[in-house]
User: Fold this.
Amino acid sequence: MEFPIAEVSWLLLLAQLPAEPSSARVALWRRLRGSGAISIVNGVWALPRAEAHAELFASAAARVREQGGRASTFSAQPLDVAEADALVVQSRADRGREYDEFAERADAMLAEIDKETRKQKFTFAELEEIEQDHEKLTDWLAKIERRDFFPDARLEHARVQLKQCGDELRIFGEKVFVAEGVNDAAKGAAGPGHDRPGR
Assistant:
């Protein structure tokens, strides 16, 4: 969900939970971080104003109260342009760390394909393992995109990396089909989601 930086307004969640059990605070933290919410200060979270985000904060606040805590939600607009810019910068920094980790794992997948190719280890077992890695990368990038409210060049770079991983996987899959004597290999049947004996 992308927001125009110049026009974005914000929602705030103020939440305070009892010290124990700590699992309640961890669960709240995980839920809010998973949504892309920005931690401003301890117990104060921000999201760009949208109906889905308002529902999320309302639900989180209700849960906090059920657990004996205090919570309030607000619609807010920073009084200073620099403060608004700082929220965008922090959001991008949060996503940037995710994109960096995504890039590392994508590079690791490409390195694994290269290693197995050099070893001529073209087996269905290796193909299945690499396919699983590709599926995880695909699902992960989709999650990052959903909480990247102010996308920049890093998103497009990640998409290019994912495509490269998919292309290399298809090539590796074709070699596996040739090595395993599957006739459809020459027709390019291999790749994410293809059928093969025993699958």
Q: What stands out?
A: DSSP finds five helices and four strands in the chain.
